[in-house]
Inverse folding.
């Protein structure tokens, strides 16, 4: 009997010694792992639809990675090909021909630099006195009417709109109102968007440009037709990608601001198409 008690006491001493030598952090991690495994065991299994969605998502991720890898390889091949062509060109040309080629290339660089400076000068003059010309404002106060995919499409159209306007020989004063929330997140993904020469504001256009008498909302549903653009007038475009789901509701939303609603006859100035609704970049 004494031997049994002695062995029991020895086992107890061994357990106590093990507790003293155990790191508290390791013990905490062990408990967390046990809890996680217990929680995962109690998680209900995924349905067939959820499994299909997960599988499709994983396939899309793999396709995206493969596409990016292929693009990277193509860039490397293109650089190598250009370097080889340049080497062959320099080996097969006389010094005079090489000098002429370098002169043409430097002239092209200077012309491109001059075009950029002229473009910046035109934009500076436009935004120095916005009321001296017509102002085009894109109203982006419809985030609650669009899905995430539609907001991505709208942000893409806004980038096109800015690009075309900045390269124009006679740029307009371009403004974007109610730029906030998820749409702002999509918009900021475009490189350099924080430096764009454009009026961007999170406020509604009625607060940016006070005075309803100087604001005209362009809508294809209006019986009135736009005949000319006037300096100092703000022409508002609805920044909405909805596939005509909220046609009547948005008309009521505009009317409550006591703003003039006019239709712009796009078909008179651009090639005919099936719809009178155009994108911001149209």
């Amino acid at each position: 009997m004494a031997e049994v008690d002695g062995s029991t006491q020895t086992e107890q001493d061994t357990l106590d010694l093990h507790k003293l030598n155990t790191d508290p952090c390791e013990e905490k991690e062990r408990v967390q792992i046990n809890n996680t495994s217990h929680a995962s065991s109690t998680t209900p299994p995924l349905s067939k639809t959820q499994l299909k969605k997960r599988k499709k998502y994983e396939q899309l991720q793999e396709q995206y990675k493969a596409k990016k890898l292929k693009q990277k390889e193509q860039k490397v091949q293109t650089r190598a090909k250009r370097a080889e062509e340049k080497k062959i060109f320099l080996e097969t040309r006389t010094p005079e021909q090489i000098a002429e080629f370098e002169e043409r290339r430097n002239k092209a660089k200077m012309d491109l630099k001059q075009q950029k400076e002229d473009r910046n000068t035109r934009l500076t003059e436009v935004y120095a006195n916005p009321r001296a010309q017509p102002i085009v404002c894109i109203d982006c106060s419809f985030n609650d009417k669009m899905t995430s995919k539609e907001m991505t499409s709208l942000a893409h159209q806004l980038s096109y709109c800015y690009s075309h306007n900045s390269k124009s020989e006679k740029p307009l004063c371009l403004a974007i109102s109610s730029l906030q929330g998820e749409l702002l997140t999509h918009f900021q993904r475009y490189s350099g968007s924080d430096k764009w020469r454009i009026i961007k504001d999170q406020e509604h256009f009625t607060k940016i440009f006070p005075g309803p008498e100087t604001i005209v909302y362009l809508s294809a549903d209006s019986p009135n037709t736009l005949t000319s653009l006037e300096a100092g007038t703000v022409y508002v475009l609805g920044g909405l990608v909805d596939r005509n789901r909220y046609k009547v509701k948005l008309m009521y939303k505009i009317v409550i601001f006591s703003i003039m609603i006019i239709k712009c006859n796009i078909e008179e100035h651009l090639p005919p198409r099936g719809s009178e609704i155009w994108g911001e970049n149209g």
User: Anything to note?
Assistant: The CA atoms of residues 126 and 173 lie 6 Å apart. The helical segments are 2-21, 24-42, 48-91, 95-128, 148-167, 181-187, 205-208, 247-255. The two ends are 97 Å apart (CA to CA).
